[in-house]
Amino acid sequence: MSGWSRVNTRMLMSAVNFKRTKFYNCINKLIRLGLIDRILTGEYRLTEQGRILAERLIDPSEASKVLNGEGEPLRLKISDSEIEIRNLNDFRSVIGEVENEDLYQQVRTSNLSKWLYALGDKYLSREVNKLKAIATRSNVKDRLKNMIEERVRFLEELASIVSLPRRGRPVRQY
Asked: Is the full-model pTM beyond 0.90?
């Protein structure tokens, strides 16, 4: 919704496949949460808080791919050897062992942000790219570790949404 100046609520209602009551209950809940504002009848816009949240989101089915998928490899130096990581969970598990200088160079040359973008996490890619201006050799590992830990927790929550059973009639298994 952030790029839209006007939202046709009927089209949106049919796109999300909600009945009228359910749709407006969701809209009212988003208003109470402070994520959207009502401009006019049938017209809404994202609040600043809603925009920030929307930027962090990715499709919940894509979250598990970013966390555990088999993306393009990123080569990192640990002691005297080089390893390849292919997803965010792999990166989280080795970030403490990677040399500070290697992480610093990965951030400065944008290799890390390009790799994250290729994985499908555009938000984290932008955040890591912002580190270029403020990261130093001594603090890059701690900053990245905190960012990665927070993002993994968020993506795990998103991925769990897909695995939750839907309310209503149970799905028949044949």
From this structure: no
